[in-house]
Design a protein that fits this description.
mainly alpha; 2 strands; 51% helix; 121 residues
């Protein structure tokens, strides 16, 4: 059998590595603390960056209420940067879809309305 693989094709982490990562990401904190950090950021507290269990580094995240959506796990870039990069094309697709739907509904209005009345009976 082959070795277990996870993100990036690396071998499954050892339990000690998993625990260190949990501490670094703050997943060892209660859920309400994790939510508060996500909402308001962690710049007001010290965090455990090296995973040794001792919080000694000041936090740098501002939280979603202050426009900090974190970093993308895929592109390793700020999420807000990725969203603003892709928003124009998304809006263009929405407009094109709306125009196309409007055209179809206008062209087939009698068919759609008679079918809707038939379904509602």
């Amino acid at each position: 059998m082959g070795s277990n693989r996870f993100l990036g094709g690396e071998d499954t982490p050892r339990p000690a590595d998993r625990e260190r990562l949990r501490r670094q990401l703050g997943l060892d904190q209660p859920v309400y603390v994790q939510y508060l950090v996500w909402l308001a950021g962690n710049d007001w507290m010290k965090i455990d960056m090296d995973g040794d269990g001792v919080a000694e580094t000041p936090g740098k995240r501002l939280g979603v209420l202050r426009g900090d959506f974190g970093d993308s796990l895929v592109s390793k870039r700020p999420v807000l940067e990725v969203i603003t990069e892709r928003l124009p094309n998304t809006l263009l697709l929405m407009v094109c879809r709306g125009v196309g739907d409007h055209h179809l509904l206008a062209h087939y209005r009698n068919i759609f309305s008679s079918q809707a009345i038939f379904v509602l009976r």
